[in-house]
């Protein structure tokens, strides 16, 4: 398969932008009106996500040869949209029709055959993975059992899945709320798995956001949320992990860190084995430090945990001030810890850059960013982090 030509042709389509996205969806919904209901009613912010991912993943088909896990996970995760094998030729035909329309004379028979072959290879893996998972739920329902407004812009929800829901600390899952049908967004449990199965979500209200404000403000006790399967491996720790950790969180990027701290705490309480954890939580103003009481008390009782809130936009704050990445690089002397970073793309990009400049090797830095789509997507390095680091953490796990 001619991979460079495949990638080049996709780059040309990316340059077309919104017009190609619009063409793709119009083609898909006109030829297959039955799939329209799987997609959000209004697709303004989301519109490009599926199409962009589709082209990127198919044009990186060569990665499948070394590791297909990401695409398998994607296939299993598509069960929550009610996608089945019969739908794949429809999306493939619309993808190829869009390429043909915009590439004009550059769309040769050879190129068409290459794209068709690459699409079939990706689709086959997604379909097989989904079919192998057929006995597991396509989604889980979870009841909201408590809500709390934790700070001016963060709501905390406690939910209880109605069937066993198995995940690892540091993973996330897609969530759909009853008030916003078909608008799935990822959220991250802020706790390690509990015996009673409940999960806490930290939800930052994003101005103009379609889901976060309603989730944090309107969703109430007794409401039922829908959850996709747990996903993401960049921030998880294997059971035999024994190193120390430097955690750098921005806003609700704190959620996976508190889940991991709980996981380590459990090990410490049962075996006495501790990993040193240096947690830095970056927020804009003092009022945004939303888990201060809990974390300071915990750090007071755990010799292995140090917690430092960092405020970026208020020089009068009587603690650490500045962008969290800069403060970490300035105040923390790296001693071989693994660095975990989580927050917005801008925050992750900045913190990763500062840590690299402070001498951390790429292999010591792992990250997840909250603005992207499906975690672990090896073809989207939206964080802008150094390429070798992106390869290190977003391999096809
Ligand atoms: C793997 C993963 C895990 C996540 N976990 C959490 C979590 O635990 N807690 C949490 O609060 N969020 C989390 N997010 C972000 C979450 O999925 C949503 O993107 C966020 O809640 C905004 O959704 P929305 O529908 O309100 O905004 P949208 O309607 O999707 O977006 C509205 C506008 O806001 C912009 N925008 C989107 N997200 C942000 C942001 N974070 N900051 C600033 N601008 C933004 C968009 O670009 C758009 O212009 C996670 C994201 C990923 C990919
Ligand atoms: C090779 C085939 C496919 C690939 C690589 C692919 C990839 C993706 C990716 C990466 C996303 C974004 C997920 C996220 O960010 O959470 C997505 C979303 C989606 N996909 Fe697919 N997909 C494929 C086939 C299909 C098919 C056949 C259908 C059904 C016709 C479908 C329906 C959807 C829907 C409904 C969404 C959500 C869109 C939204 O929220 O706006 N996909 N897909």
UniProtKB/TrEMBL annotation:
Region annotation (Disordered) ranges: 368-397
Gene3D superfamilies in the cross-refs: Globins, Nucleotide-binding domain of ferredoxin-NADP reductase (FNR) module, Translation factors
InterPro entries: Cbr1-like_FAD-bd_dom (IPR008333), FAD-bd_FR_type (IPR017927), Flavoprot_Pyr_Nucl_cyt_Rdtase (IPR001709), FNR_nucleotide-bd (IPR039261), Globin (IPR000971), Globin-like_sf (IPR009050), Globin/Proto (IPR012292), MRET (IPR050415)
E.C. number(s) listed in UniProt: 1.14.12.17
Pfam families documented for this protein: FAD_binding_6, Globin, NAD_binding_1
Top-level taxon of the source organism: Bacteria
Cofactor(s) listed: heme b; FAD
Domain FAD-binding FR-type: 137-237
Catalytic reaction list: 2 nitric oxide + NADH + 2 O2 = 2 nitrate + NAD(+) + H(+); 2 nitric oxide + NADPH + 2 O2 = 2 nitrate + NADP(+) + H(+)
Keywords: 2Fe-2S, Heme, Iron, Iron-sulfur, Metal-binding, NAD, NADP, Oxygen transport, Transport
Top-level enzyme category: oxidoreductase
Domain Globin: 1-131
Family: In the C-terminal section; belongs to the flavoprotein pyridine nucleotide cytochrome reductase family. Belongs to the globin family.
Annotated protein name in UniProt: nitric oxide dioxygenase
């Amino acid at each position: 398969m001619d991979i460079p030509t495949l990638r080049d042709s996709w780059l040309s389509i990316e340059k077309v932008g919104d017009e190609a996205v619009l063409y793709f969806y119009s083609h898909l919904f006109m030829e297959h009106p039955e799939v329209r209901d799987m997609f959000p009613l209004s697709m303004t912010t989301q519109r490009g996500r599926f199409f962009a991912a589709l082209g990127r993943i198919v044009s990186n088909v060569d990665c499948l040869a070394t590791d297909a896990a990401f695409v398998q996970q994607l296939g299993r995760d598509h069960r929550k949209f009610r996608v089945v094998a019969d739908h794949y030729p429809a999306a493939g035909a619309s993808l190829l029709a869009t390429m043909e329309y915009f590439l004009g004379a550059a769309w040769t028979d050879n190129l068409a055959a290459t794209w068709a072959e690459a699409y079939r290879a990706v689709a086959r893996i997604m379909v097989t993975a989904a079919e192998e998972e057929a006995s597991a739920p396509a989604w889980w329902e979870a009841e909201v059992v408590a809500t709390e407004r934790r700070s001016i812009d963060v709501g905390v929800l406690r939910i209880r899945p109605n069937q066993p829901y198995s995940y690892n600390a540091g993973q996330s899952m897609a969530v759909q709320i009853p008030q916003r049908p078909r608008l799935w967004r990822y959220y991250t449990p802020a706790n390690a798995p509990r015996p009673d199965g409940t999960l806490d979500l930290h939800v930052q209200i994003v101005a103009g956001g379609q889901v976060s404000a309603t989730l944090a403000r309107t969703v109430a006790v007794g409401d039922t949320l829908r959850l996709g399967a747990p996903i993401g491996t960049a921030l998880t720790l294997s059971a035999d992990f024994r190193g120390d950790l430097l955690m750098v969180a921005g806003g609700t990027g704190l959620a996976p860190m508190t889940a991991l701290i709980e996981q380590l705490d459990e090990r410490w309480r049962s075996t006495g084995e501790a990993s040193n954890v240096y947690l830095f939580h970056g927020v804009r103003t003092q009022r945004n430090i939303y888990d201060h009481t809990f974390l300071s008390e915990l750090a007071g009782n755990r010799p292995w945990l140090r917690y430092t809130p960092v405020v970026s936009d208020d020089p009068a704050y009587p603690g650490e001030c500045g962008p969290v990445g800069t403060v970490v690089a300035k105040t923390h002397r790296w001693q071989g810890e693994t660095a975990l970073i989580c927050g917005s793309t801008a925050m992750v990009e900045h913190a990763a850059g500062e840590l690299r400049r402070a001498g951390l090797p790429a292999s010591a830095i792992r990250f997840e960013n909250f603005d992207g789509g499906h975690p672990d997507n090896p073809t989207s390095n939206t964080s802008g982090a150094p390429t070798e680091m992106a390869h290190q953490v977003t391999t096809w796990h």
